[in-house]
Amino acid sequence: MANIISYLVLFSLIALFFFTMKRIMKRDNVINELIIGFYDQTSISKDELIDRIYDYANSDFRLKKLVNKHQATRDDFMTIFEKLIYWGNFKKRKRYLPVNSFFFYGSLSYLLEHKDEDAKKLTMKMMNYFHI
């Protein structure tokens, strides 16, 4: 009986690992696509970028709860993006601060809680969050 329970726990942990990795890989692919399209090739406009970021936040189960909790709108995302791009419009390796900040729970939570703060303070906090 103990063997059956331990195998069930093992298989459930393996399944959890695969679902989590699938989510992380999807998120990373979306981030890379947006950075390449907006920063490198400039084939994505700012409005389209914000729309895609907002749509992703509303489709991801963790970020969706956060967006609903703070009742964030597309305009909130645009305002925050404008603040981040003013002081943090640079790319380091595969990170582009104005885009990456919207895809992680901790950074998005901070941005939505402090969306009315100074642009420099928000950007510095995100630079510290991403070790830039």
Characterise the protein shown here.
This protein is mainly alpha-helical. Helix content is 77%, strand content 3%. The protein has seven helices and two strands. The protein has a two-stranded antiparallel ribbon. Strand 1 and strand 2 form a beta hairpin. The protein is elongated and about 60 Å long. The N and C termini lie far apart (51 Å). The mean pLDDT is 88.
List the total number of helices. Answer: 7
Q: Strand order of the main beta sheet, please?
A: 1-2
Report the mean per-residue pLDDT as an integer.
88
Estimate percent helicity: over 70%
Following the backbone from N to C, one meets helices and strands in this order, namely HHHHEEHHH
Poorly predicted runs are: none
Sheet with the most strands?
2 strands, antiparallel
Structural class based on helices, strands and sheet pairing: mainly alpha
Strand proportion, as a percent range, falls in under 5%
Kindly, what is the distance between the CA atoms of the first and last residues, rounded to a whole number of angstroms? 51 Å
The total strand number stands at: 2
Shape: elongated
Give Rg in angstroms: 17 Å
